[in-house]
Amino acid sequence: MKKKSILFVCLGNICRSPMAEGILKHMLFERNLHKQFYVDSAGLLSYHQGALPDSRMRFHASQRGFHLTHISRPVKSEDLDNFDMIIGMDNQNIQGLKSLADTKEQEAKIFRMTDFCINMKAKEVLDPYYGGPEDFEYVIDLLEDACEGLLKVLVGS
Ligand code: 4NP
What we know:
The protein is α/β, with parallel strands linked by helices.
């Protein structure tokens, strides 16, 4: 059976999207569903290509038991063909992804992370890069909530 593939996208691919990738992989692993899915992340900027996630994000993630090992990479136009779902974090990400889409099929794969939230209300997962510790914590809260909702969609319950 072909694995269902999910790509999380933010701007730098060092804060939000690698965190979302880490959370979803962790949730899939806990439920023994990890072999059925391929999860990755990418950024609209190539500036941080080759870098581990931001040390502040890795610190806050590790406090909740998530160990982030993703290496930043820019999103490629082939990603829109190769992945089943491409999930952006904010309006700018969604616009950037839409501008990479050449076909209706590609555009239909683009989703907004906060649309999967169950308990929290937000329209975007905003960049915590210039924020403080509480901004990183809030981003992880939002991403955990959205990943719970996404998991329900993925497993159909
Ligand atoms: P991210 O955060 O998109 O959540 O990875 C950012 C990190 C770095 C930059 C922008 C956003 N930057 O401009 O360097």
